[in-house]
Every structure is written in structure tokens, then in C-alpha cells.
Amino acid sequence: MRALLLRPLPWAAAPGPALSWIGDERIAISAVPPARTVAGLAEQGVTHVVNCRPRAQVRWSGDLAAERAAFGPGRVAHAPMQDHGLRQRPAAWAAAACFAARVLEDQPQAGVLIHCTAGRRRSAMVAYAVLRLRGHDRARAAALVLSYRRQAQLVPAYVRSVERWLGRRG
After folding, report:
1. Nearest to 102 by CA among 167, 48, 166, 138
2. Helices 122-133 and 138-148, interaxial angle, to 10°?
3. Tell me: the pLDDT tens digits for 111-150?
4. Domains in the chain, start-ordered, CATH in brackets?
5. What distance lies between CA 87 and its chain's CA centroid?
6. Would the pTM of this model clear 0.85, i.e. be above it?
7. Strand order in the sheet with 5-7
8. Strands, DSSP E only, in the chain?
């Protein structure tokens, strides 16, 4: 297994969130990038973004608007979720997970950044869902997320949400 690959955001004046690229999957997980640094994400290989922050937070901070301005609305998906540790409704995140999986399937040069506020729980869940959609079994998807994003936590209720949703699709 490849070593953890962290790519710092060199353009940020203060230390910014590091992107954790998940092996060769072209999926990165991070904390929310400050709005002033979003345009520089492309330099790190990001072509598409999945923002997993709640509506109120993205309105207040402007991160979703900055991402849509930098990448274009068709390259940014929003999965508005609260981090409460309980079941996550697929209506909040499933379309974004499908978006990311489709981009990775259709565009061999694409790199998808999935972020929440801290880059630990919601973004890890959506990355796990994308990996599952891309054919990885439960154990492999979990191992990829947890080994490449050291601070990630796969909340059991969140993983069950993904697995239930996948079970209903199949």
C-alpha cells in the first residue's frame, strides 16, 4: 500500500488544510479550504469538488460559492449534512456520491476533492460511498479511507447509511 500522500496548499499564507489523496483513486479528502485558496486547488490536481457542509455553514462562509465560481457549477456537488453521528439520509449525500463516481469513471484525468469542515467524518463517509460505487468491497473501501486520511473516522451509523442505500440500489 502506498504511503500517505499529503499535498499542502502552498499558496495559503497560513497553514491551510492538506489534501489527502486516496491511493490511485483520484479522490482527495480535506478540511474546508478557505474561500481565498479555492482557486489554487486546481494546482493540486482538483478538477471537481464535493462539499459536505450544511447549507447554513456554506452560506455563512462562502466556500460553496467560491468553489462554484472557481470550478463552475457543473463541477461542484453539494451534500448538505450535519455531523451528528446518526443515520445520514441518502437525500442529502447520495447524488453527490454518484456525481463523484461518474466523474471518476468518465474523466480519466479528473481529481475529486471531498471535504467537510474538518475532513474527518462526513467527507470520509462520502469518499467511502464513492469507493463502494467504484467496486471496492466494504473492507477495502474503509481501509483506503482510513489509511490515506489519518484523521478520518468512519462513523458506524454513517457507514450503515451507505450500505443500506447501496442495498436498495442493487
Report:
1. 48
2. 140
3. 999 999 999 999 999 999 999 999 999 999 999 999 999 9
4. 17-169 (3.90.190.10)
5. 18
6. yes
7. 5-7, 19-21, 27-30, 112-115, 48-51, 76-78
8. 5-7, 19-21, 27-30, 48-51, 76-78, 112-115
